[in-house]
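ARCHIVE CARD
SHELF: 3
SLOT: left
DATA:
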Amino acid sequence: MPFAGWRMPVQYKGIKSEHEAVRTRAGLFDVSHMGELLVEGPRADLAVNTLVTNDVSKIDVGQALYTVCCNDAGGILDDLIVYRLEEAKLLVVCNASNRDKIAEHFGARLPNGVSFQDVSDRWALLALQGPHAATILAAVNADKKVVDLAPFRVARAEVAGVEAWVARTGYTGEDGFELFCGNEDAPTLWRALLAAGKPHGIQPVGLGARDTLRLEARLMLYGNDIDENTHPFEAGLGWVVKLDAGDFVGRRALRARKEAGLERRLVGFEMTGRGIARHGYPIVVDSKPVGTVTSGSPGPTVGKNIGLGYVPKALSRVGTTLGIEIRGKVVDAVVVRTPFYKR
C-alpha cells in the first residue's frame, strides 16, 4: 500500500503470524522509508541540542538517545532517535512522513560550522527483532562487538559481508537490532538474515504487525498519538524533556505548560465490551464526547482489544470506565496501566 511516498507491505504471511514470530522467535522488517540525517562538526551535539528536548550532549560515542523535536509552541514536530556515531558526527533518524519537515527544520537552524546532509535516499534500514535476533546476527558472521551491544548502543561492523551501522534499538517492545547500510547492499543483507534465521523461525514482517507490536509496547505513532497539536507532557513523554539542560526550540512554551499542569492525558485502555477501537473513534462518558481514540487494534500477545486516546486528566486514572463509540454504538472500556506488554 502507499505509505509516505513509498510502497510498503502490509503483510507477508499474515499480521497475527508475523506478530507472534517477533514475540517468540524473530522478524525482519524493511524500514528503509525512515529518514536519516547526518549532522557533523566540532559542536554538532550542542547544535542538535537546540532543536530537541532531550540532552544529546550526555551521550557518548556509540550511544543513542530517544527524544522529540518541537515547534515554538511546544507541539511535537516528530519523535527521533539520535545516534552519536563519532565524537563530532550524529545520525538523526526521523519518521518517513516528517522527513522533509525535519530536514528543513534542521537545515534552517543549524549554525555555521556544522554540516547537515539528508542521506535518506542513499541509506537502507533493516530491523531484526525478537528473542532470537542476536543468535541470527551472530550466524551471519557479524562482529561480536555488535552482537553484544547493550540497548541503545550503536557500532560500525561488517555483517554478512556488508558494511553497516548496527544499533540495538527497535520499535516492537522486543530485543533486536536496526541495521543501516547503503541501498545497493540492502538486498544482500536482507537475504542473508532471512537465510540465517530460517532455522529459528524468522519471518519477514509488514506494516500491520509493526503497528500491533508497537501498540502493545505503548510506543508512539506520529500522526496518531502525537503531532504538532500535542505536547510531550500530555503524551507521557515528559521524561525526554530536559528543561534545565539549555535552551531549545519550544522550551519556553513547555516550561509554561508544565507549570500550568495537564488538562488531558494519553491513556491506555482495554475493551471490556465486544468491539475494536480504531483511530478516530470518539471516547464518551455519560453519552458526552470526552476524547478520541488515537490508536487501537487487537493485541495478539495480550489477548485483548487495546487502544490509546487522550482524555481529561480527571478521567485518566487506572480503572476509570470509558465508552468507545463504534459505528453508533457505545462499547465499554477501562483505563489500564501501560505498556500493555513488557517482555
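SLOT: right
DATA:
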Amino acid sequence: MASEKRPAKVQRWIDLIAALLRRWSPMSFETLAREVPAYSNTAQGQDARMRMFERDKDELRALGVPIESVAGEDGLPASAYVLKSRAFYLPYVMPAADESARAQPRRPEGPGYQGLPVLAFAPDQLAMVARGAARVQQMRHAALAADAATALRKLAFDVSFSDGGAREVTIGALRENNAAILDTLDQAVRRRKIITFNYRSMERDVRAERRVRPYGLLFISSVWYLLGHDELADALRHFRVSRIGDVSINPARAKKTDFDIPRDFDLWKHAESRQAWELGDGDAITVKVKFDASRAYAVAGAELGEPATQGCRKFRVRRPDAFVRWLLSFGGAARPVSPPNVVSAWRKLARDTAKHYKKVP
C-alpha cells in the first residue's frame, strides 16, 4: 500500500511546484486546484483537499522548497502562495571574465536563464574548489568523497577546471579498514541505534568492549572521532575511529530508534574543539595554568583557556600527556598549578627533556 501512495504524493509535489513556477504572482488555493489534478478531485471534500495541500506545502518547505504565503487583504489570514524562481533554481554558473576582457561574459539568451542570478568563477577560485574537493578525499570518508566528485562533475558541465586532474575525485581505500567501520558508524548515527565495539584506550592502552549511543562523527585535525554516550561510564566520550574494531549495530527493533539525542547537545560546538588534549575516552579534568603575561606567545596560548582564580586560566583536559607536552612548548612561560598529578607530570617531562638535550653535542 505504501508503494502505491508514494508515487501519487511525488506527482502532487511536482504538479504543485510546476503550477507555482508558471506564474510570477501569488496563487490562491482555488487557482492551484485548477492546475493540480489531485486538488480538484471532487471525490474528496473541499476540507480534505485543503488539508492535503497544507501537508504537501509543509513537507516541501521542510525539503527546502521556499513556498511563500502572502497575507490576504484587510489583515485576513494568508490565502495565496508564490514560489519565486530566483529562490528555487540554482544560479547560472559561468566562468568569470579575465582581466584582459572588456566585458563580463553573458549568459545564454532565451527563457529560463534571464531570471536567474549568475555565479561566476575566476580561474583561481576554481582551483580552490578543486583543492577543497581533493582535501575532502583526504578525509578518508567514502560517502563524502563521492559527494565531492558529484559536485565537481556538475560544475565541470558549465566551467572548465585549469587543473586537468581536478575534474574527478577518486575514492581511495582507507587504512585499517576504516572505510567499513565509518560506514557502519554513519548508519548507526543516522538510525540512532546503540552500537557495541572493541576499543583500544589511548590512556591505558588496553582493549575493552564498549556500548555506546552514537551522537555524531567528527573530523578534527585529520582524524575521525565518534562522539557518543558511553553507557558504562554514563558520560559523553570521544572515540578515535582508528582504534575501533568489531562494530555491531543493535539488531533489535531494526526499524525503530534506540535513543533520543539530548536537546541541549550541539555537535557543532564539539566540532569547534581542535586541541589534542580535549579528545580522548578518559574523564575530563580541570587544569589550572599560570601564564607569563610578559611574553606575547604565552598570552596567545592563554586565550585557549577560560578565566580562573589567582590570575590563572583553566582548561578541560582528557589527555594530560598531550597537555603537558603543549605546556612544555612555552619554555617555562606556562606552568600548571593544579591538580598535583598534572604538575608532577609536567615537572618530570621538563627534567627528562633537559637531560636529553644535555646529551646533545
